[in-house]
Specification:
Number of strands: 18
CATH architecture of the largest domain: 3-Layer(aba) Sandwich
Structural class: alpha/beta
CATH topology of the largest domain: Rossmann fold
Shape: globular
Radius of gyration: 20 Å
Mean pLDDT: 97
CATH class of the largest domain: Alpha Beta
Number of domains: 2
Low-confidence stretches: none
Bound molecules: 5-S-methyl-1-O-phosphono-5-thio-D-ribulose
Length: 366
């Protein structure tokens, strides 16, 4: 998407053929910084410490991490070691394992001398594929927005609530939850987005709001606890979120707080949709509550908030007493029964084993 009139993806290969460049998301919305990374520990840090984040982007970054390793040492041992190192950076988003498995599947049969070039090629293809998947999610989600818009008075916006950042910054481009929104804006359909701030790391306030502002999407930032109230008052027409892992049964794991939004939506008859590219489906898992590992992050993310001070410094401030401990589960699971539909690249699926199997017949068997 565009930043200051230039088109950017969130990640691209370095010109030297041995590195990758990323938008370093830690500084947004205050500062737009690009980092070049040319070693595996650097890639692991970028994923773990969330210089890049969002399930699809984590996967693509890991794929480039494998490629960087292959440029240095293309041996089987190095391939297995980079798989392990990057796999343990973040446990919940399945795209990470998907991308690492895919890279190893492609590289393992190749002679050592061909592995580095093949790895950069495949990482680039995975990045391109992500853009295509999101574009198709956009088309399929746009049909839903259009249907809601058709029931409104001319000029009245479709009010959409979103949680966390499932925007272009969480993917290579377009985003999953945001792709239908961007297409709606392109087509001139009036939309208005309620952006959950998404504590503790404020991906909504810092990233989604920055995206919406940058692309001229009318939006309003709300605290995480406001969504239920707005739904009770009829001010939300639909919810669209992303997902870090969706099970073969249609249970949706996403940023902490998503479940509460789904409960409120269900109670108020507000449709609750999930933008779901197929690499985010974990076909090996049925019950999301029991089987998905939930990342536990540092309590410091709860006890402190980052922001820009009046003097222009980007800094963190403590919001709780120094002696108060904090728990920080980073994701939760929304049971399939609370999900209206899964917007995939192939169409909108019912959140159920049958629904997913109908769209992905080649993958549906356990
Ligand atoms: O902890 P994060 O910022 O990586 O979490 C991101 C999310 O939860 C997104 O909603 C999810 O990855 C979907 S991204 C298209």
């Amino acid at each position: 998407m565009k930043v200051a009139d230039r088109h950017y993806r969130t990640i691209w290969p370095g010109e030297d053929g041995r590195s990758v460049e990323i938008i370093d998301q830690r500084w947004l919305p205050h500062d737009f910084r690009i980092e070049r990374i040319d070693n595996v520990p650097g890639i692991a840090t970028a994923i773990r410490d969330m210089w890049v984040r969002g399930a699809p982007l984590i996967g693509v970054t890991a794929a480039y991490g494998v490629a960087i390793q292959m440029a240095d040492d293309p041996s089987d041992e190095a391939l297995d070691a980079v798989w392990e190192t990057l796999h343990e950076t973040r446990p919940t988003a399945i795209n990470l394992r998907w991308a690492l498995d895919e890279m190893r599947r492609v590289l393992r049969p190749l002679p050592l001398g061909q592995r580095a070039a093949a790895a950069f090629r495949r990482a680039g293809e995975i990045a391109d594929e992500d853009v295509g998947l999101n574009r198709n999610i956009g088309v399929n989600g746009l049909a839903i927005i259009k249907e809601i818009a058709a029931g409104k008075k001319p000029g009245e916006p479709v009010n959409i609530l979103t949680h966390c950042n499932a925007g272009w910054l969480a993917t290579v481009d377009y985003g999953t939850a945001t792709a239908p929104i961007y297409l709606a804006v392109e087509e001139g359909i009036p939309v208005h987005v309620y952006v959950d701030e998404t504590r503790p790391r404020n991906q909504g306030a810092q990233l989604t709001a920055w995206e919406m502002a940058g692309h001229g999407v009318p939006h309003t930032l709300i605290v995480d606890n406001a969504g239920g109230h707005l739904m009770q008052r009829g001010e939300i027409d639909m919810v669209i979120v992303g997902t870090d892992r969706t099970t073969a049964n249609g249970d949706v794991c996403n940023k902490i707080g998503t479940y509460l939004k789904a409960l409120a939506a269900h109670d108020n008859g507000v449709p609750f949709y999930v933008g779901l590219p197929s690499p985010t489906i974990d076909w090996t898992v049925g019950d999301g509550l029991k089987e998905i590992p939930i990342e536990q992050r540092s309590g410091d993310e709860v006890s402190f908030v980052w922001g820009k001070t009046a003097s222009g410094e980007i800094a963190q401030v403590r919001v709780s007493p120094e002696t108060t401990g904090a728990a920080n589960p980073a994701f939760d699971v929304t049971p399939a029964r609370l999900v209206t539909g899964l917007i995939t690249e192939r169409g909108v699926a019912k959140a159920s084993r049958e629904g997913l199997r109908a769209l992905f017949p080649e993958r549906g068997r356990r």
